[in-house]
Fold:
Amino acid sequence: MTKLWNDLKKNMKDWSSAAVEKAEEVSKIAVAKTEELTKISKIKIEEHQLERELSTLYEDMGRMVTIYAKDENMVNFSGNKEFFYLIEKIDKIQLKIDKKIADIRGIKEEYNIPDSDVEYVIENPSLDTQNEVEEIAEENDSKNENSTESISKED
Structure:
């Protein structure tokens, strides 16, 4: 009977060791995936901010074109510096957006993260992720304000 009991104890130890190892492995994978999903969420917030800035530039351009067409009957902007300045800013922001999209695609491919996981995290952020994203958004807003001020000073 003692032999049976000792064999049972040994098997239980082996099973529990294997279970602990598997749990550690799964938790490491989960932590890594969570970190990558957080990175993607942060990049998506930055992309969204750039898209808002791009939208504002398009609105400014539309407003400018409307004013020139209405008040000065001008529809040819070939020599207009203000028009080409807006085009240049739009192109720069679009390049930044394209880079953000490529960064997200790279992270998803590198860590084999499906789109459904990314969408779930974006739609259901945890409190920690929300706080991190809000901090990044505030940092980016202050950077954008500083860059807008420096661009205005250049003109």
Summary: Residues 2-154 form one domain. Confidence is low (pLDDT under 50) at residues 150-155.
